[in-house]
Automatic annotation (TrEMBL):
Parts of the chain that traverse the membrane: none
Keyword Transcription regulation: yes
InterPro entries (alphabetical): cNMP-bd_dom, cNMP-bd_dom_sf, Env_Response_Regulators, HTH_CRP, RmlC-like_jellyroll, WH-like_DNA-bd_sf, WH_DNA-bd_sf
Residue ranges of every copy of the Cyclic nucleotide-binding domain listed in the record: 18-138
Designated name of the protein: Crp/Fnr family transcriptional regulator
Length: 230
């Protein structure tokens, strides 16, 4: 892990939702407690059990948060994309990380120290509310994930992921996009084996619903895909 000592831009820190309303003076204080980190693809940022001394903000690249079993199996809990943060809740609890973090791509990120966050919470109730709101949104998303894994079939999980990857695109016309991460990571995120994911892609392709070439995906009939029951 490489840490750089160059100047951290306050403009970049304002991309973090709970920092946006801070005064210029307070934001400069945050800058003084922020480090820029660079991780190469495959590099581990921290391991499960390491102490949390702050939180991270991904500027570019991609980080996966995962749990590994003694026999080497891996479960991806979350994939963090640019302009997203992670680690706030563990930092506030003062507990070690329950997951490990690994760069899926070459990644540039910021580490904001725990001390300055605690100071801002003590002095600014509105900042504390925004920080809690952000963590609540993430918790809600994780609960939705648990519901998806528990109540939907493997095919429905894959379809839901593909449609979610389209964002706000019009599903009445074909849609093309690149998968945001590796198929292996997607499979783990959806609680599937890579072989099952490949089988479902093939099944949806044979049904005339999608075309997959490498990481490029074309949804041939998104509306019919949404209605597909397998």
């Amino acid at each position: 892990m490489n840490a750089t000592t160059g100047h951290i831009s306050p403009v970049m820190l304002r991309q973090i939702s709970f920092f946006r309303a801070l005064s210029d003076e307070d934001l400069e204080r945050v800058v003084r407690h922020t480090r820029e980190l660079r991780a190469t693809k495959g590099q581990v940022l921290f391991n499960r059990g390491d102490p949390a001394q702050g939180f991270h903000f991904v500027v570019e690249g991609q980080i996966k948060l995962a749990i590994s079993s003694p026999n080497g199996n891996e479960k991806v809990v979350e994939v963090i994309h640019p302009m997203q943060t992670f680690g706030e809740a563990v930092m506030l609890l003062g507990r070690p990380y329950p997951v490990f973090a690994q760069a899926v791509l070459d990644t540039r990120l910021l580490h904001i120290g725990q001390g300055i966050v605690s100071d801002l919470i003590d002095q600014d109730p509105m900042f504390a509310k925004k920080l809690l709101a952000g963590m609540a949104i993430r918790l809600h998303g994780l609960i939705q994930d648990v519901e998806t894994y528990s109540l939907r079939s493997s095919t429905q999980r894959v379809i839901g992921y593909l449609l979610q990857s389209c964002g706000d695109e019009n599903i009445e016309v074909p849609i093309e996009f690149d998968l945001p991460t590796s198929k292996q990571t997607i499979a783990s995120r959806l609680n599937l084996t890579p072989e099952t994911l490949s089988r479902i892609f093939a099944e949806l392709g044979q049904a005339g619903l999608i075309h997959v070439h490498g990481k490029h995906v074309k949804l041939l009939d998104p509306q019919r895909l949404a209605d597909y029951q397998g």
